[in-house]
Amino acid sequence: MSAWPTDVPIVQHDPEKESYVDLVIAGAGPSGLAVGERVARAGYRVCIIDPQPLGIWPNNYGVWCDEFEAMGLSDCLEVIWPKAKVYLDSDNLGEKFLQRPYGRVDRPKLKRTLLERCVAAGVTFMTGKVDSVSHGSGVSTVKLQDSEASISGALVLDATGHSRRLVQFDKKFDPGYQGAYGIIAEVESHPFELDTMLFMDWRDDHLAGEPEIKARNDKLPTFLYAMPFSKTKVFLEETSLVARPAVDFPDLKQRLDARMKHLGIKVKSIEEEEYCLIPMGGVLPTHPQRVLGIGGTAGMVHPSTGFMVSRMLGVAPTIADAIVEQLSKPCDKAVDAGASGRPASEAEAAAMSAAVWRAAWPVERLRQRAFFTFGMDVLLKLNLQETRSFFNAFFSLSAFHWHGFLSARLGFMQLIAFGLSLFANSSNQARADLLVKGLPGLLGMLLELAPTMGDYYGVRKEQKAAAAAARAQPAAAPAPMSTR
Question: How far is Cα of residue 15 from the mean position of the Cα atoms in its chain?
């Protein structure tokens, strides 16, 4: 892995010299940096606030290679496995090979790439943790914790991930949780093929002599996720796909230890230790609202899988371009009127924010998320055997369907076809399980979908009001005809 980019010459923002920028971003993770660079490249002033702008990103990122290739980030993949494998059990279901290359992200190189792009575009940085935000007269002011410092802007983007520092919720946030405990270790040896990434291993042979752990695993199953780097170096992670409440870290560590013992893996040294807890699903933040959101803070984690880094980087240009479009409106008015290029009122700033939220969560994406959340609700109810049956059917689908589901590429009608195909590929018992355990989630999905069938954001209502106002305007007097 590359060295962490502590030498990138980021520019520290001095709020005493420049108290106002066009966009304030809270959080220097992948999505915050990607949006900041793109907005700044369009000519707007951007300041990113983070406790450690040059700090490490602690958790490993694994991605399907085609996702990073599509974004021009292939050079940020450290290791690529030509195929992946899923173990369902040691009996009839056996194993499935996934003919889709998988890669481990070189986190330091990705961060260096994004930071250097930000520096080149003119993004500035403030070191600190955001505390609160206030709005008034078209200006948003962000205050920092343990400091008198603050900075104002036309728009504020919360990219603080699962801490959700600034966005507001109007309902209780009650997600499922993906929990994982993992290590990158030097080992004496391991049994994994070096050209195959182990995507999921649901086998439980290692718990034959551990009745208490086995009973917990039968009810709340976990799987092994493994990346073999060499014959003596490997990343091993015991993962709970989704649970509510989360499977705790000591339990995950105990399960991983039992698995390693069964596989004969003897650890010589640990290079990295990872504790990962990802909220999945749950309600979206209030939208629209004055503070913008991206990534975990905006509910963009895949509710059924926990995948996020490719989704965040993929949506960053859409949100950045929407921000640029909105920032250009007061600037255009200012040029015409010779005034300041800022929102003239709180109503104008709120309308700008609302437009960005519509771009971040278009109706089709809301419908897609409702389906994914339905999938999460089903997975929450499955025991070990039911989970194995589910993934046996899932990975028997066409590549179009399972690739598209995992990468959030399927539209809502395609997801309906996916669901019907999954049901058709399931065993009779699995179909019965899906019907019984999926019905409450299906009803919940229909309730969530209902508002999207109408004028979800009130756009048509606004358009009608504007048209009515235009019709009510007196017609302009015709220009006098020339007598020459």
Answer: 30
